[in-house]
Amino acid sequence: QVHVVESGGGAVQTGGSLRLSCVASGRTYSTYSMGWFRQAPGKEREFVSGISYGGTSTLYSDSVKGRFTISRDYAKNTVYLRMNNLKPEDTAVYYCAERARTYVGPSNDSIDYAYWGQGTQVTVSS
Length: 126
Known about the structure:
The chain is mostly beta strands.
């Protein structure tokens, strides 16, 4: 059984920071790249960030590059998304996902991810 569980969302003012966590279980975590996506009201789910199975390669959407940092802790089977300088347009439900295939890098396409968390709400007020 594969489980992906996000946490760490909340409400923050513009310019604030949050750190999201994602715990993955049920498969060999160290062999899978991980990704973060988000979905704002009335909009499609979009890619935010990804990290390779080895943790050496990262990928960011243009909208968050320079503000968000993805990392992973193998001892805890956990992926983090540190979000700094948050903006109202960052308001969304954030989802963590695990790739379908082993030993491939992160992707910005949701079709490449097999397992998804329940989402955690991030709200940024002005």
